[in-house]
Write a structure and sequence with these properties.
Number of helices: 1
Strand content: over 45%
Radius of gyration: 13 Å
Number of domains: 1
Helix content: 10-25%
Order of helices and strands: EEEEEEEEH
Shape: globular
Structural class: mainly beta
């Protein structure tokens, strides 16, 4: 958890769930879920299986599933398998849709090259 009023600059790698109520600048990689809370703000790159945005995000997201809830805001580029936007959510940028299995295979192939 990144608590409210906290600032982290750099790279985070987590194998479980991550809740961000503070500010993160940099790269985040999570095996499972990243939730950006209403007071949370992220600037940089984010890669996770499932991303929920209630706060603000600016940068690029790569996820199997992305949810932007009412009041949540994304500005940047997204590559997702599935996207859900509630009324009142904001997204400005470019989007690409891909099958999660295909993306996982290409990432695994890249590691073995």
């Amino acid at each position: 958890m990144v608590a409210a009023n906290s600032v982290i600059v750099g790279e985070l790698a987590v194998s479980d769930h991550l809740l961000i109520d503070g500010r993160v600048e940099g790269r985040i990689r999570a095996d499972l879920q990243v939730s950006i809370g209403r007071t949370g703000a992220v600037q940089g790159e984010l890669s996770a299986r499932h991303v929920i945005v209630c706060g603000r995000f600016e940068g690029s997201i790569n996820a199997d599933r992305l949810e932007i809830v009412a009041g949540g805001s994304i500005r940047g580029d997204i590559t997702v398998g599935a996207l859900t936007m509630e009324p009142g959510a904001h997204f400005t940028g470019t989007s690409q849709f891909s099958r999660p299995a295909a993306r996982a295979d290409s990432q695994a192939a890249g590691r073995h090259s």
